[in-house]
Amino acid sequence: MHELVNWLVNTIGAMGYPGIFLLMAMESSVFPIPSEVVMPPAGYLVHEGKMNMWLVILSGTLGSLAGAYANYFVARWLGRPLVIRYGRYVWITEEHFDKVEGFFLRHGEISTFISRLLPVIRHLISIPAGIARMNHWRFSLYTTVGAGLWVSILSWIGYFIGQNEALIAEYSHEAVIAVIVFSLVLGGLYAVLHQRKLRRQADPA
Question: pTM value?
């Protein structure tokens, strides 16, 4: 972990904001690069006065959106059968995809926002959204807001903690727990309001 964090600090420092964009685009698609080891080093460079926080957050958010777009449009073009068939070549198993798709179907379109805050499924949720042909503009909005929130949290963790990877791991873990609780509350509230809307629409009166 120490060597990885040092490499990322050096890489981001050398590539600048395009490096953040590229790494987060990879993280948001199908490449196993955790955002927890990308954004905190960028926040540390902000603390060192070598980068600007708002540009770091913007680069990370836009990178996440770009990676999500890649998954969304590929899934929309290929459809579910081909995603399942070829997904195994990029570490997408049918069992794993079924779980993510079930999450999307249970929680509706807002799951594209909630999932940006959750580990494991954040980089796959765009696939069922694409297969379901979710409205492009709502997909963009939910993804941008969710990714922006998560990128901001990780960047500020790196800013305040510095290059101590043990503390970064600890606080990133606590942040994950906090956003999971937040996401569950938000998802429950959305489900209740959505059900009420459906009942009103079904009521002939």
Answer: 0.73
